[in-house]
Amino acid sequence: MFTGGGSAGHVTVNMALIPRFLGEGWAVEYLGSEDGIEKKLISSFENVLYHGVATGKLRRYLDWKNIIDPFKVVNGVLQAYRLIRKQKPNVLFSKGGFVSVPVVIGAWLNKVPIIIHESDVTPGLANRISIPFATGVCTTFADTEKYLPKSKTYFVGPIIREELKHGNIDRGRAFCQFTDQKPVLLIMGGSLGARQINKSVRAALGYLANRYQIVHLCGKDQIDSSIQSPLYRQFEYIQEELPDLLAMSDIVVSRAGANSIFEFLFLRKPMLLIPLTKEQSRGDQIVNAQSFKASGFCEVLMEEQLNAETLASNIEIIYRNRSTYIHNMNQYEQKDALSSVIELLRRVTK
Which residue intervals define the domain Glycosyl transferase family 28 C-terminal in the entry (predicted)? Predict the structure, then answer.
């Protein structure tokens, strides 16, 4: 059984693991929120039974919903407990996100072994709540070990979705109606979008379109239909075609969620990272981005300094020095994280 959601980043690792278990003949089920992005993403698997449970968002700021949401979490725990008691899973794998908390507690109450995955350098709030109930915690960054109980921690490295390894440049160009005459710039604001990035990209479009063919994944309801250009393609969110878009891209502009940036690293894509601010998050993306910059994989542009001019100038730096970033990325030793996690899940299965 799998859980995790709230954003695509809390689902993609699960999507990398699920095909392997299905291929080995396991029955796979998913517990997520009743209407979150995870429900849409997991629906692409025909043989995965999806269960929706109530959940409340875990906020770090004052909001009147903070009064109501604890009751939703309690209701979610009761729903998850009953579902897990009925379905009797052998093991639960949690990718985190606020939806995972009631599911983890429900599994613990049913004495189901729990493996948690933490992508970022520092554990998120949902995982910090869930870790005391877990059998083990898999980490992407080696440095995460110092924030966790040593007896529970397993450094496995980044989990890369299998389909990303099979992207095709020609299919990507055909999908976007691009040519091979200009380099391709891929801009990703995350599954939930990024208004400030979108605003700066469009403000710099006159300059950028002279230099690049641009694919812009701008988030739900963020498409600007007033902009029509054969050199600029906008999409709210891409799933099936993403491997092809990455294959044809020369450089990437993105937030600094750990899953995404490690996928760019695996694919050797020079990147400009624009992490969420501390006001928007707990600061984990800033730490992720700084770690990658220290390794020579990227440049970092803080959102507070983001505008059309700084965006365009940093993109130029990345493109001009792309061979240096690729050389640095080639020094990175990729672990077989997928196999390590699968072996751990097999080992703890009751």
Answer: 184-333
